[in-house]
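Hi all, posting the design record for the shared folder.

TITLE: backbone redesign
STEP: 1 of 1
STRUCTURE INPUT:
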């Protein structure tokens, strides 16, 4: 029987190399069909009985290769690919039951906030939003029924940096699961599992896929027990990634190391430029020495990523948003093209106004995802955008 059809669904990821670039380039280590160098798309819904695969909702060879690849990059044992980042988050929340309590970042993606408020809170699960930068204060919010601490770092969109090792210790000492959204930095710059997290999630739509052409999400763990549960959840909810989306994500990941270096380089240069611009009141980017968590960022990550936010001094947001030739006004982030986003009406529109204002999402806040363009062109475009009043 072909080697592709012999492994078990809970098989651990294969580490082909100690080097991240090699693992990204060569994928999950499964032999391609008929020796294909580019892993094939198995665009099929069902399979002849008797092999490992039976039905693509349960598992698919292309998706399995992607799952092993992402698990390997995160230095985890088991990976799961979902139809979106929100599907991945929802699957993690599906580990809970009515009466459980979750302590979660107060500054996080608006879609996750909406998922909690509109869906999961109605299932008898309670959520407490808190600033998790100070675990000592967060400790006072833990209840007897707390089962999960869920964190983003850097946070979206205020770019707060959370102390992962300390939060992991806080959770682990109490038998609480600790999950981290690693979308902004990817495993190229940050590996939460190595810092003590139990689960890492991603919107794979962003930097991992990296080309504005697919929507997917991931969850990675090193726990066999959690892996069995997440696998069951994916098969039961039917929210796993499709074969073609899995193939697109595999293709994007091959260039992840190169892209992340360029994203971060462009973001740092843009942050320095914006910090000195007369129309900009404040820049939120953890790669700047002015960021309050600059030293922590250097300790737990090897780069500051490709996303920043900045606050205008005036109310001329609309002209800035629509003034770019290269930098496009659009939602999302992490792709080859630079995008500027208005969190108040786009990514965080579902967050109540008082909550937005409390965490800093004001009418003058903009979020910028730096793509792969030449930095001189990007700075020229930013200057043009900011010169329109």
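Okay, here is what came back for every position:
SEQUENCE:
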């Amino acid at each position: 029987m072909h080697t592709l059809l012999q492994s078990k669904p809970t098989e651990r990821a294969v580490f082909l190399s100690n080097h991240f670039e090699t693992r990204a380039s060569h994928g999950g280590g499964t032999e391609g069909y008929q020796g294909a160098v580019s892993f094939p798309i198995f665009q099929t819904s069902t399979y002849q009985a008797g092999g490992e695969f039976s039905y693509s909702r349960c598992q698919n060879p292309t998706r399995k290769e992607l799952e092993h690849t992402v698990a390997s990059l995160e230095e985890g044992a088991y990976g799961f690919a979902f139809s979106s980042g929100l599907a991945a988050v929802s699957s993690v929340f599906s580990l809970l039951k009515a009466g459980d309590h979750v302590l979660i970042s107060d500054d996080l993606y608006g879609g996750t906030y909406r998922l909690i408020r509109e869906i999961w809170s109605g299932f008898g699960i309670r959520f407490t939003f808190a600033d998790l930068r100070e675990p000592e204060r967060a400790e006072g919010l833990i209840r007897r029924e707390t089962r999960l601490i869920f964190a983003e770092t850097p946070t979206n969109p205020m770019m707060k940096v959370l102390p992962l090792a300390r939060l992991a210790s806080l959770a682990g000492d109490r038998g609480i699961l600790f999950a981290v959204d690693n979308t902004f930095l990817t495993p190229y710059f940050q590996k939460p599992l190595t810092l003590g997290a139990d689960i890492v999630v991603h919107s794979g739509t962003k930097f991992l896929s990296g080309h504005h052409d697919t929507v997917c999400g991931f969850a990675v763990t090193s726990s066999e027990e959690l892996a069995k549960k997440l696998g069951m959840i994916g098969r039961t909810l039917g929210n796993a990634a499709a074969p073609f989306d899995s193939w697109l994500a595999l293709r994007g990941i091959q260039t992840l190391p190169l892209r992340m270096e360029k994203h971060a380089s462009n973001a740092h240069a843009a942050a320095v430029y914006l910090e000195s611009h007369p129309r900009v009141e404040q820049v939120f980017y953890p790669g700047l020495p002015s960021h309050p968590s600059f030293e922590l960022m250097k300790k737990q990550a090897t780069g500051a990523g490709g996303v920043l936010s900045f606050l205008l001094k005036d109310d001329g947001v609309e002209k800035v948003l629509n003034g770019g030739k290269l930098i496009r006004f659009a939602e999302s982030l992490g792709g080859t093209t630079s995008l500027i986003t208005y969190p108040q009406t786009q990514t965080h529109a579902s967050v109540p106004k008082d909550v937005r204002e409390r965490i800093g999402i004001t009418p003058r806040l903009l979020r910028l995802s730096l793509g792969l363009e030449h930095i001189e062109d990007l700075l020229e475009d930013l200057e043009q955008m900011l010169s329109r009043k």
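COMMENT: The mean pLDDT is 94.
Let me know if anyone wants the other runs.
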